[in-house]
């Protein structure tokens, strides 16, 4: 059973990453509709604002509680997040809560002793329950939207695969919060198999989305995206084979780590290029920063899995 301290810290770290992810998913969906689908726009906006509020409450009790590793990994925010939010708000007219990013910049890690475990535990349990309710609603929304897009009832500039992609991420978030609420002590070896399969597929799809959103004249970037897509497709298959014990997990972890380092640098360069208006595309800068944070999140997980593998 998970200790109270680990329950609090793991919950807040999970939310710092995923709550921002969910609010940005809502933003990407909101910005992708035509004016005809005002109901879908309004629903996405409501989810975005609700996740803003949840993230504010998470940040307000995270100082000194979450690990320095998380804060330094670039998965909660990056040096580009604030500028990417400002640019994307300018392009879309959506008022993005940049104050949350400024608050996160001030967070410090690892001085747990100044907090009351009992009070924090109560607050975290309430946040977890709110996250479960909100995320379940967002999953239903994404599922309904995907069905309407596939049956040609709704048009959006977001690919059907992207809607499915962000729905899978929401389902992962829901599952992880539920496991924390049940105080489940996570088996890191089992987690490595599942997470590497999941995130290698996510990285492959990021590369394919980028390929399709770049201007057709951006030949070099399109080719690089294609290559990353193929590489992570292969790694996804290797992770599946590792589940069946036909490939050593340590090899998949090492290969995934190297590939994720490379795609992370590619995403960082892309985010900078978008902010500096040096890349021709239909990509809002916040999407570049968003997928950079996802690569950073996966890198931190892979470092943990590598350490576990070395101890065995």
UniProtKB/TrEMBL annotation:
Pfam families named in the record: DUF2935 (PF11155)
Name of this chain's protein: DUF2935 domain-containing protein
Source species: Clostridium beijerinckii
